[in-house]
């Protein structure tokens, strides 16, 4: 509309007075307010016209005017108290549609501005679907956000979000489905259900949310299900024009799949080169790092590798920059033999950017000064710097142990001359032995890692698809009770009832576990046999009644796949990094930044390991596994004994126990030989904490090796290794609890498949469990099974 037409319209509307009729006057004032608000953007004048409208003139137009006054004060003037005053003048009977929008605006103010979530909830609940379905959907989303992010009641959040229908508000429906998918992915770890929600999101409903959902589906199939072809399908659905930042992450994931999984390095390069710095500087740095690695390690084009690595700037990704400088230093040291230039790159690595890489760089600088430039003083300084900085982690445990041993040697020779040649020979001896020792330990840990229970590529009837935790009914009650149930616990090994706990391996190796070691192990025990008489006899008894306990059978979603989570690098080490040789970062996430979800878990999902049963006197070894009787108990009403025997034999065959035992035995013998060489070294014997440091090398498997006398327990374990100062460790609240330290894992109800009641478990326990589960009307039934094992 032209300016003169607007002015003419204003002039004509201004002539209308109440004498022309109250309703006509109210409409004219409203139109004048709209002209000044929408066209002239003169909000003060618009406010004056809206304020001229009285309720008795026209209740419906008055409600609209009060709403727009509230909008001006909320969105333009940011005076939220005055906005609230206008909104509260609107009654539902005057204008139900405007009332609903007003209640939503009030809810938004109390949620986002005043952070009074209970009051926000009250306003949202005043909105009825029949008045305005689209605003009702918005209110449900707001309620879902409050119950998820603020109250951490994820079940109630889910109820609200599930009530949002696509036809009411397609855009908000898409956001709700994404929110639900994220809850099931990050909180409940039910990745199949998360996938269902993500797949409900169509691009035409909400392109931005669709992109994020496709990204998370790609992440699930990449990191959880390990179905890389399907991950690729989802990631290729992400277009740059929809979301350049998420596109960059998707291209990085695709590059990683083709680099690490498919070994198609040319295609990996294509994906990495699609990432522009301006779209996502941090991911660009990672991609350039991986391109550098490909050209160095695969294509052996060191000049081109250097070009990519030099593209990484410190401000884009300080941690990756440090790794790039390390890589460049290595190229000039090992390939180009330009030690001055190598030094220049190593010196660019600062402790602040990446402490662990910095320590390694100082160690290499020490070697360069010793072997190439012959400056012993500088070499010693570098070695000491490395020794003081390196921290224990599951990625480079040998570096920390070596650094501490070297530091001990230096301290023992501080006050008299030290033979540098002898020191360097001893240093090489230490690095060689300790690195080998840690690698052998890691090999055993990987053999004991239970992956099939978590792998969706296997049948749902996979024999080890669930494991059982035996405990007291009182513990189960606390895990299920009320609105705020307790979380599952991992207990510190130091206070275990079994005095041989964590001692079988170290005793056999002739090293001791020092009680003052500040790195501690926490564990939770499970059994492959869910209905075992011996377990019911030993564990969970109440009131001195044998067999009165219960067995909780957890499904695969209770556990994680990332074995690095067994050690809390973020606490023990200052920073967490991936391999020096590769710049990958599988923890790149693609979820929205607008939805902040605080996990109910204290810890990340932890992996599960089977125990090795070992008799040091005879050399007997066996792996924890399901016993044959458990197959008969599971299938007694469905299959013939012949079919059950066949399943059992197939299970034993797939376990491949003889081959695994042979490999473990070979590794353990090599470990023992290495430990002996280190213990027999006269120089190392002078280090006061030698045993303590050597025990760290085998710490990841110490808790997994049990005496063969316990073989019938068929135990598997969840382990968490951390520093004693970890904030996740729950402190005792009273003196009686002072002999108990534990970490909290997660709430359990979503992960329980079956509960077995011991032979002497009280009948009231079964009744309250039935009551609890029936009231919740769960979609997935938790079976209560009374053990019929004969107890004498």
The radius of gyration is: 33 Å
For the terminal residues, how far apart are their CA atoms?
95 Å
Give the uncertain stretches in residue-range form: 453-459, 572-587, 589-602
- Main sheet summary: 6 strands, antiparallel
What attributes does this structure have?
54% helix; 792 residues; alpha+beta; six-stranded antiparallel β-sheet; 33 helices
Describe this structure in words.
This protein is α+β, with helices and mostly antiparallel strands and 792 residues long. It has a domain at 449-561 and 605-786. 54% of the residues lie in helices and 8% in strands. The chain has a 6-stranded antiparallel β-sheet.
What order do the helices and strands come in, and which of them pair?
Layout: H1 3-14, H2 22-39, H3 43-51, H4 59-76, H5 80-87, H6 96-113, H7 117-125, H8 133-150, H9 154-162, H10 170-187, H11 191-199, H12 207-224, H13 228-235, H14 244-261, H15 265-273, H16 281-298, H17 302-310, H18 318-335, H19 339-347, H20 355-373, H21 376-389, H22 397-412, H23 420-448, E1 466-471, H24 473-480, E2 489-492, H25 504-508, E3 519-527, H26 533-538, E4 550-555, H27 569-572, E5 608-610, E6 612-614, E7 621-623, H28 628-635, H29 641-655, H30 657-680, H31 690-697, H32 699-702, E8 705-707, E9 715-723, E10 729-730, E11 742-744, E12 752-757, H33 763-776, E13 783-786
Parallel strand pairs: 6-8, 12-13
Antiparallel strand pairs: 1-4, 2-3, 2-11, 3-9, 4-12, 5-9, 6-7, 10-11
Helix pairs in contact: 1-2, 2-3, 3-4, 4-5, 4-6, 6-7, 6-8, 7-8, 8-9, 8-10, 9-10, 10-11, 10-12, 11-12, 12-13, 12-14, 13-14, 14-15, 14-16, 15-16, 16-17, 16-18, 17-18, 18-19, 19-20, 20-21, 21-22, 22-23, 22-31, 23-30, 28-29
